[in-house]
Amino acid sequence: MRSMLNEGAQLRPSARTLWEIQDRLNRLPVESASNIYTDVLRRRELTAAAGIARRSAVCDLDSLKSYQQEVRSLFLSCLGGVDKTPLDCMPRITGREQKNGYTLEKVILQPRRGSWATANVYVPNIIMKKPAPAVLVTIGHDDRGKADPEYQYLAQMLVKAGMIVLLLDPLGQGERFEHFELEMDYQPIQGCSGEHDLLDWKAKLLGQSLARYFIQDGICAMDYLASREDVDASRIGLTGHSGGGTQTSMLMMAAGDRFACAAPCCYTSDHRAMMEHGIDPDNEMLWPRSLACGLDYVDLVAGVAPSPVLFLTTQHDFFPREGTLRTLKDAQALWAACGSDHTVDIATATSQHAYPHSLSQAVTKFFMQHLAAPAQDFDTLLADFTFSPAEPSALWCTPEGQVIKYDPAMRTVHDELKDVMLRLKESRAALTEDVLTTSLARMLHIAELDERPEPRIFAEGICGHYQYRSIIWRPQDHYWNSGVFLRDLRQGDKPLPTVIALWPEGTQRLTEHSAWIHRCMQQGYQVLVMDVAASGGQLPARLGNTDMYAGWSTMYNLDAYLMQLDDSFFALRTRQIVAALRMVSAWPEAADAVLYAEKEFSRYADLAALLTNTPIASDDDFLTYEEIVTEKYHDQTWSHAWVLPGALEVFDAPEIKTLLTRKGLSIADPSRAAK
């Protein structure tokens, strides 16, 4: 057997078993180390230039309006658009209670037809001048929702200052757990972010983001406030902490011209800092293509320009403060460039992530100033202020504290997503094969691939009857793939039909597939077991102290960054398989390539086979996208492997398999069918 590394030399037996080959594959050349993290940082820098150029063009109020219209359109397109709120939010006041100096109203709103949202409205007993200013408070991640004592303190202080205050339960929090099981009287999805994640992955497949539903909720609440006779619609302020800071910022972007001022708390940073620190965005903060569009936190804030804004921050927050200060500087420059009489200020508490009392006091003074609240001395107000927190049940708008119990037939977001899925399924039926493949090539960025990647051997040898060649190659700039060619040494150097084999963890699972590899060789094939991005030998390093897979893990973070860059692990891995087929087509010892794939990797391989007209044997040991959207619960462990934003606008796996069969590309397992 000749060597490919040393001209004229012969291979000599160097080991006896397959696991020894697997061990040698762990010693990849240093230059091929998978560094997706470095690449997403590089790509963010490139895409940021478009946003900088847009903001630099603002020089007066007219150019500010043009800039705001452009970024608002880009932002909403990243979410899949936002449906208009019903003209009548159908408010239902289910209770009123007299408190110390104010009336607490318990309100149920309808942000979408047949769907309910719960809110508390704090109304001063004495309104000095009607109509009064109002503040919409969006709630952060806390199971108690509007009953969180931090928000109760804020609401009671604002109402003491003479403002009407609305606290809105977000989706999946407070009284709005949409996965509440009536028969069990139990909420299976624990933690307020649990429902957000579960629903958002479904939304992503449909070309949406769960953020659009949060925005609809906020606009509905704002519409309700503006419709009240006791509220001055021209004097509505906005604030929220953490996830509520996210909602505040999204509303600043989506409906900023309807707010007189705003104060996001413990959220504002910038993408550079978030990515450099490896901070994970919650699902509703994850907007596909947003980074590719050059959007940054300052663009969200600028949605309310030229009105006044106050950043509420804490010294020891996990949202990186250096990003906050950069965004503050950029926002102040933008306000100055458009000639605003106002600016963007900052208030900071010496605490960790929270909406502490000192920030509630700072934002109260801010709203008193900019909403023209009844004239009074703040120090006197503070001296007279007493805080009386209520138990969550005392704030319920529904009899039993859950909207599902209030209306078991209500339309949940899950119901809406299923309807969207059915509409997309109907529209996909009209797609021609040409439209399908063109759409796939665009979604997967096939044009970024090298025409014919050149492989480089870094190790070779003989193990028992196996001849192996360990290789690396570049499918596109800034990425490597790796793999190993395996053949029966008795076949010599002649070209052999080649199976490109794909399964989870790739070359790190050679030994588990030893029987399959052996049978393929018996059928006259050689096998290339390859590692795609973030798998096998291409597994990235952990980000900080995160787990590799579970929860908000390294894989979650990296995929989140990629999706915001209009990419994903799904797209990256699929086009890398296409690149591997191109590489194999020029390999001197390879002929007639076919694909073999298992589990989640079958999703990628099927698409690569369709795009390249390559025969394939793949299983269906994974959930179809229709199953994921339709079923109330789905496992999220491998979400980074199967989420392709907008996938269901173009395909589902069974449709691809049907098309492969019709084209004669589906073949039997090459280890079982004689060549």
What structural class do helix, strand and pairing data support?
alpha/beta
Mean pLDDT: 93
Record field, number of beta strands:
17
Please, how many helices? 22
- Order the strands across the largest sheet as they lie in space: 2-3-4-6-5-7-8-9-10
Helix amount: 25-40%
The whole-angstrom Rg is: 29 Å
Low-confidence stretches: none
Assembly category: single chain
Q: What is the terminal separation in angstroms?
A: 23 Å
Strand content: 15-25%
What's the main sheet like? 9 strands, mixed
Q: Choose one word for the global shape.
A: elongated
Provide an overview of this structure.
There is one protein chain. With 675 residues, the protein is an alpha/beta fold. It has helices at 18-25, 36-56, 61-78, 149-160, 192-205, 211-227, 243-255, 271-276, 297-301, 321-337, 357-370, 378-384, 403-406, 413-428, 433-443, 514-522, 554-564, 569-585, 601-612, 625-630, 639-642, 653-662; strands spanning 13-15, 92-98, 102-112, 115-124, 132-138, 164-168, 231-241, 261-265, 309-314, 344-349, 456-463, 466-473, 481-488, 496-502, 526-531, 590-597, 616-618. The strands form two sheets. A nine-stranded mixed sheet has the order 2-3-4-6-5-7-8-9-10, with helices on both faces. The protein has an eight-stranded mixed sheet with strand order 1-11-12-13-15-14-16-17, with helices on both faces. α18 crosses α19 (601-612). The longest helix is centred in the N-terminal third of the chain and has 21 residues, at 36-56. It starts with 12 loop residues before the first strand and ends in a 13-residue tail after the last helix. 53% of the residues are buried. The mean pLDDT is 93.
